[in-house]
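Hi R.,

As promised on Friday, here is the backbone we talked about, encoded as structure tokens. Could you run it through your design pipeline when you get a chance and send me back a sequence?
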């Protein structure tokens, strides 16, 4: 029997789900419902007439592993191969990442030599912690914070500086609250399987990742973007979906409620109209899904609500000429240095192709807030653009010694943009999926709130949701 599937949320997760559903003859109709005026969610590129492109959300995607290969495969299916911009592994933007500690920039240790020497701001060579790690006994807890895990297995100093910064540079979150099991599954699995992260990395954690070996053509890339910015991807997906007869895509179509009647969803929209669907794939942020589900699904909504998200202030800046004292991907700031200032991306180093046409410029993005948003800026509703801009330009001056003012800037406050996988996230997922299955709810959860926040993970979650359903229909 053919079915009508509604995909709720037109971010990259929802578009990916539709793309994969549209390939199946078993689905009679796919309806994409996006609440805002555009598709793509956090993939949002500001394009200026002079050719410059500034990213509000993701600016580069790693082509690593099965999910990395998968995303590039979709890019290729959409005919975007000639649009790809890539950074090779031997480029400075791949080799150089910095930490801003004690008022100075420090290059993060990389390569074998970097592990053997004492490199400031660390007080000992990393090799000490690495060798000791193999002797540390296995943890007994089902989950642990990223900070506790790294302190226990490697060293408190690495946890306080490097891991604290890394969690801010991926989740805009606090490594003392984030779950190692859900945020960094390979680390958790390596300890489970081999009793050690180092041994797990050397021997593998027992799970084959055969797709890594399929990634032949892109193995020299460390990240990729697209010629007119990351937004090109949702645009291409939207265009491709519009060409399919069995697919309807709707924006400015906010879902207000989902009610189940006789095994069929009745979806109420903001304009008062309703539509029916046999199955819903939700790619909404968990809390947004919680607010549209019926009261009867309370055990599920309670779990969904406990997945909170962080708000990030993003400031894109453009400076005349080359103004950076160092070159590389960017720098991160540990929470002990400045809780509100997460880091600065040196966009024009990774992707100079996205600079304006004409003379040389430096494009930077300053990211602030995250878990520390309120303590830094106060209430979200009261913070002014000027306060945020001043904080960003002040950081560029003090961290990078840039004294000239930016020639262009864009301030954006991305409310609840990155889900936080706090301690026990895996248990919450298990409870939610058990509830859905026990109650035979025709509902699949996909998107960044559950199994990975990266663009690759989210594309994969949309694909898995679609393929899981098509297999069942
Ligand atoms: C600042 C920032 C930097 C990032 N950098 C990187 C990076 O460098 N590399 C990387 O891999 N990833 C990065 N990410 C992560 C990645 O971009 C996101 O995790 C991913 O885009 C989330 O996609 P999604 O489809 O799950 O959710 P969203 O993009 O949140 O899409 C959900 C959609 O649902 C819609 N919606 C909400 N409520 C309703 C409703 N009631 N009815 C209908 N529609 C609704 C929203 O409008 C939205 O379009 C970054 C994210 C941010 C915020
Ligand atoms: C300073 C804040 C942030 C910066 N990027 C993000 C935030 C919150 C968001 C983000 N960055 C990455 C991802 C995807 C993760 C993945 O698994 O691919 C997300 C959601 C990529 C990333 N960026 C940094 C790291 C260590 C990673 C993980 C993958 C990798 O190693 O490439 C470092 C980093 N991010 C930012 C800066 C300034 C920075 C470091 C120099 C910005």
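Update: got your reply. Pasting your designed sequence below so it's all in one thread:
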């Amino acid at each position: 029997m053919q079915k009508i599937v509604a995909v709720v949320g037109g971010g990259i997760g929802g578009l990916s789900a539709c793309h994969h559903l549209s390939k199946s003859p078993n689905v009679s109709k796919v309806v994409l419902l996006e609440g805002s005026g555009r598709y793509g969610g956090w993939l949002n590129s500001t394009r200026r007439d002079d050719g410059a492109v500034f990213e509000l959300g993701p600016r580069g995607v790693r082509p690593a592993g099965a999910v990395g290969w998968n995303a590039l495969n979709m890019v290729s299916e959409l005919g975007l191969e000639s649009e790809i911009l890539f950074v090779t592994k031997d480029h400075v933007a791949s080799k150089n990442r910095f930490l801003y500690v004690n008022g100075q920039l420090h290059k993060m240790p990389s390569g074998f030599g970097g592990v053997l020497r004492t490199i400031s701001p660390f007080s000992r060579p990393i090799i000490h912690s690495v060798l000791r790690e193999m002797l540390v006994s296995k943890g007994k807890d089902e989950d642990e914070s990223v900070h506790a895990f790294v302190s226990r297995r490697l060293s408190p100093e690495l946890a306080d500086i490097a891991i604290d910064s890394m969690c801010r540079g991926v989740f805009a979150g606090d490594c003392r609250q984030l779950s190692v099991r859900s945020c960094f599954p390979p680390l958790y699995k390596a300890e489970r399987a081999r009793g050690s992260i180092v041994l797990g990395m050397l021997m593998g954690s027992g799970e084959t990742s055969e797709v890594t070996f399929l990634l032949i053509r892109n193995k020299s890339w460390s990240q990729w973007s697209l010629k007119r910015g990351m937004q090109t991807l949702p645009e291409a997906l939207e265009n491709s979906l519009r060409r399919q007869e069995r697919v309807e895509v709707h924006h400015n179509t906010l879902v207000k409620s989902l009610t189940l009647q006789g095994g069929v969803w009745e979806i109420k929209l903001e304009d008062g109209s309703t539509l029916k669907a046999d199955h819903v794939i939700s790619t909404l942020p968990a809390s947004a899904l919680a607010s549209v589900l019926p009261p009867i699904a309370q055990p599920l909504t309670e779990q969904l609500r406990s997945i909170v998200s962080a708000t990030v202030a993003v400031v894109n800046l453009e400076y005349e000429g080359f103004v950076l004292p160092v070159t590389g991907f960017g720098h991160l700031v540990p929470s002990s240095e400045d809780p509100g200032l997460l880091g600065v991306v040196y966009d024009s180093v990774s992707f100079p192709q996205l600079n304006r046409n004409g003379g040389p410029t430096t494009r930077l993005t300053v990211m602030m807030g995250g878990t520390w948003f309120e303590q830094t800026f106060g209430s979200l509703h009261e913070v002014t653009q000027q306060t945020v801009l001043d904080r960003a330009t002040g950081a560029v001056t003090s961290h990078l010694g840039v004294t000239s003012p930016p020639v262009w800037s864009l301030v954006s406050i991305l409310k609840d943009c990155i889900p936080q996988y706090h301690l026990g996230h895996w248990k919450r997922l298990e409870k939610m999926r058990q509830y859905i299955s026990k109650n035979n709810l025709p509902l699949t959860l996909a998107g960044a709130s559950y199994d990975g926040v990266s663009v690759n993970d989210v594309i994969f979650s949309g694909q898995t949701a679609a393929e899981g359903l098509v297999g069942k229909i």
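One thing I noticed while checking it: The pocket of LM7OVKF4 (ligand 2) is lined by residues 62, 97, 166, 168-170, 172, 312, 329-332, 342-345, 367, 418, 453-454 (CB under 6 Å).

Thanks again,
M.
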